[in-house]
What we know:
homodimer; alpha/beta; Rossmann fold; six-stranded parallel β-sheet; 14 helices; DNA-binding
Amino acid sequence: MSQSNFIPTLADVAKKAGVSTATVSRCLNSPDQLSQATRKKVMSAVAELGYAPNFNAQSLAARRTNTVGAIIPTMDNAIFARGLQAFQEELGNLGKTLIVASSSYRPDLELEHIKTLTARGADGLLLIGYDRNPEIYNFLKQRDVPSLVAWAYQTDTDQTSVGFNNEKAIRPLIEEVIALGHRNIAFISAPKKNNDRARDRVTGVRMAMQRAGLDPRSLKLIETPYSIENGQAAFQKLVALDCPPTVAMCGNDVLAAGAIKQAKEMALSVPDYISITGFDDIELASLAEPQLTTVHVPHKAMGKIAAQMLGKMIDQQIVESQELSTELRLRGTLTTPRACKLK
Amino acid sequence: MSQSNFIPTLADVAKKAGVSTATVSRCLNSPDQLSQATRKKVMSAVAELGYAPNFNAQSLAARRTNTVGAIIPTMDNAIFARGLQAFQEELGNLGKTLIVASSSYRPDLELEHIKTLTARGADGLLLIGYDRNPEIYNFLKQRDVPSLVAWAYQTDTDQTSVGFNNEKAIRPLIEEVIALGHRNIAFISAPKKNNDRARDRVTGVRMAMQRAGLDPRSLKLIETPYSIENGQAAFQKLVALDCPPTVAMCGNDVLAAGAIKQAKEMALSVPDYISITGFDDIELASLAEPQLTTVHVPHKAMGKIAAQMLGKMIDQQIVESQELSTELRLRGTLTTPRACKLK
DNA sequence: TCAAAAAATGTAAGCGCTTACATTGACTTT
DNA sequence: AAAGTCAATGTAAGCGCTTACATTTTTTGA
């Protein structure tokens, strides 16, 4: 307790202010219960000592942490980084702190993080997508921790969510592709396993093909984790095919960026030789050359709304799932297929 | 305590295993102190009850949190997102959790977050850059919280850091610019106030000009926060000048991307009419058209090393600041100035 | 003016852990 | 066989807060 790094406690403040610890606690948590005079006394003691409450003690005693956890696949993807940034800002407004963990798209890691965050007493959890072991949902229910699913929206579940329906979101895009005359379609997707968003996008494409009288099984599908390099590799595989597709639709913009890059390296004209589309509309999309045709997703808004919803859920309020709308962004990488121009 | 959402405590485990709470605690924290038999008993009780320690109680009692805090300007910038992702992964390996806060480049917010994170008992703090009120450093010292500065490296301070010297990092780039014959140079920087990294880059440029016999005051400097739009606006201002520069050097790649975009919109050829350079070498850089000449920074490695260093600092080990090296990436956006080709 | 109600404050029992210290046996030594 | 070691475990005192309940003070109303 040398004067140099002495950390004051509630009791120190109480002594200095000449009141009980309960009063100090009240002064900090519900000031209106105190008389003006006492409040002033306490406040100046707080200021003088530079007191800051010990968070752990606070949480332990009050049984709430004012902390929410978010488990995202990776921060190293603009869409999550951006959404999380907004999420965190709004959380700050609500007086809550964020703890982030990333699962690297691995269910086992996700489970582990969920347990850790729960042990830390997270008041609520933000999860990405629906797909996970029911065991996890049971655990959450058992622990009574509210959780919000983001980046996805489904109606056939009681899990609250904020996001969009991926199947529906990709629909205008695939319909445009088909309308332009494409019949030889490829899709570069993230691995569909454990990833409902990726899966729903593919399903959306297949359904539209069916509706248009095309054989959904004719879709050339490649699954590969999101990254520029993987996008390049997948694209290369596609154009090496006997009968290369006239359009390479991509599960997200990062993959699409890889495809564009590879096309350039191979001196294949986009979109004249082959069209390319993305999903997400990150900055990259409008910076690419030509600009990427993609589906715009309101990541920032989603993060903000997620924070508000989770805040309410933590306060035991009933919250309805919220569907956000996405928007087709037609830009330069999509045109009619090479074989049937002017068809 | 209904069977449904009953959360077991240490005491419950102890009772079930027929031992004292101390034994259970030891079993979890230093198992080798126990006899094989007891350990087994305890472990199975733990498993049976699905026990997980309450983090807050743990921290309160043990006076350490196994948590580190990071305060970054924004997650919404690939460099920090990437660095942080690596930081967090490595932290996970060390059994520590990360709490992130973002300051939005505002010193007041940074201070506030530092206080919050300290109150939460963060065992250590990751900070970006050196520039901050001495009051903050005093606070940290007083509270005895180890802190590591990243994304910068300076020798004339006792604050431990991991990063690179921004002045030095930009040197090969500006020297190349000058060597190519550019004499009318512009620099689009982030606001230099409270941002040593931005400032050092400008200083580096000025110093090189001086060394080359150019007047450093002739540097056309624009300060604007990092964003594509701001890059565009700044670039527009530059080319509207009576005597537009032959090269627009940018404080980072995001600004540079904006500049390239604007150049395209104005149909000004890059690099023939005007050269553009960036800093950071984010994915964008090699995706742009033409590819951006920039300075490569090892963000991922920095994040990882930062975690290791901070881990050691928390364990009271002495740690030396570490300098990382950057590398010039000459690509397509830089060439000789229009006025003096073949000079 | 005085009892009753309301407001302000104090008392003290935890919250779920860790850990210094005490205790208990089982083994060594001599 | 007594004394000393040492490993394994138990006891219990906190860690710094919150909050139910008790107590005191002030306000109110008739």
